[in-house]
Structures are given as C-alpha cells and as structure tokens.
Prior knowledge:
The protein has 277 residues and is α/β, with parallel strands linked by helices. It is built from 10 helices and 9 strands. It has helices at residues 17-29, 31-41, 58-67, 80-92, 129-137, 163-178, 189-196, 216-234, 240-243, 245-259; strands at 48-52, 72-77, 98-102, 114-120, 140-152, 157-159, 199-206, 262-264, 267-274.
Amino acid sequence: xxxxxxxxxxxxxxxxxxxxxxxxxxxxxxxxxxxxxxxxxxxxxxxxxxxxxxxxxxxxxxxxxxxxxxxxxxxxxxxxxxxxxxxxxxxxxxxxxxxxxxxxxxxxxxxxxxxxxxxxxxxxxxxxxxxxxxxxxxxxxxxxxxxxxxxxxxxxxxxxxxxxxxxxxxxxxxxxxxxxxxxxxxxxxxxxxxxxxxxxxxxxxxxxxxxxxxxxxxxxxxxxxxxxxxxxxxxxxxxxxxxxxxxxxxxxxxxxxxxxxxxxxxxxxxxxxxxxx
Length: 277
C-alpha cells in the first residue's frame, strides 16, 4: 500500500522512521505516474474522493489538488503515526478540504456514496485484494470511479543482466510472498476490477529507465532490502551474511557501473473502472 499499514494484515516493511523516510523517497519517484493516472481516470474539480491506505497523505494531497476546494478528499489508514504526519503536512499545504481518519480500509463504510475511490500500493499488501475491491463498490455512487495504482515486480529487469541485482530482486519477491503480499498485483488490477463488477475498465503501466550513472536505482533497491531484511532472514530466504545490508547499496552501484546497466524498476500499473449506473 501507499506508505503505511491500512488494514489489519501486518505491513511487512514496518513503520519505523527509516521506513517512513524510504517511503517518502519512493513517493517522490512515482509522483508523476500517480498524477498521470489520477488525471487519466478523470479526477476533477468538485469531486468527493476517498483515498484508501492514505499513509503519509501523498496521494490524498495530489487528489486534493485536482478536486480543488469545491471538492473533498478523505484519507483512510490504520497507522496513527503515519496519519499524524499526513495531517501536519496537509495543514501546512493549506488543504482544508483534505481530511484523514484512522480506520481499517478492508471494512470501512462511507456514510454516503462518493464520486471516486483511489488507492496506491494498497492491494499489494492486503490479504484478499479482490474482497477489498468488491467491498468498496458499495461506497460509490452509481457510475462513480475506482482507481487502483500498484507495482508489478514482474516488470523489473536489468539491461544487460546483473547477477547481484537479479539475486536481490529474487530475495525481495520471495520475502513479500512469504509475508502474504502480492508483488505482481499490478498485472492483475484490470481483472480485479472487472471481476468485482466495474465496467469500462482501463489499465496501463509506466516504467522508467534508470541509467547506471543515476544512484537512485541502487538506493531504492537497497532500501527495500534493508526494510525487508528481518523478513528475508526470518523466512530463511537469505542469511544476514548473504545480504550484507550495510554494503549492499555500494555493491549494487559498483555492479551496475561495471556492467553499464540500465535498471528497469517495477512497473507502476494503474487500472480504473466505473460502478454500475
């Protein structure tokens, strides 16, 4: 999900200060595709929007820009710490039409139907993504929109291949799966919406190409492994000696430089559809 834990299933990456900082950086790297999906799906002035798994509030504030003061955005998340940060940042941004509430996104009910529901990096982490999508169909007015944005780890690759990076991504995917997450959920978003009863479903993916000269690629991958390290070790996927977390970013940077490799990170996928009229 987007920066946090929004349901009773434990967020495998945790909510330590280091992880929140990593997620802030991650949110910055996927802000443009997120904005693209919000605009393509049709968020506009005056709409009443719910942001599921709002975390630090990045998506809620982007939606708030698009719906403007004549609209409203309500962010839902279960992490008290993340929401405290979200509220402070949103107040500083002068967005009085963006609010947050602590609740479980898998069971939350809207007091009245809304115009749009959005979620970013939420379905990745919930135990039953299909059930969550079906549940929120009832929170939408007829003809309203549901937009899901998520990663497809299956799209990650390196050109040319780099053994250390392929091994590292393998650790990451195995750890997510062992924890009950869905690291390739981005590829299934359109199907999830169609099976839940949404119509006119549209889906596409966005993927950057990161040069070996750009340190952001190694930093991103090493940061994920750092946050996942306890789960990787606990599930017997790799040992601490194999991970060597303290030097991983430097080793990835050097391996990419030596290969002159381009990093293709996980695809950011988006899918949206409309509730029955």
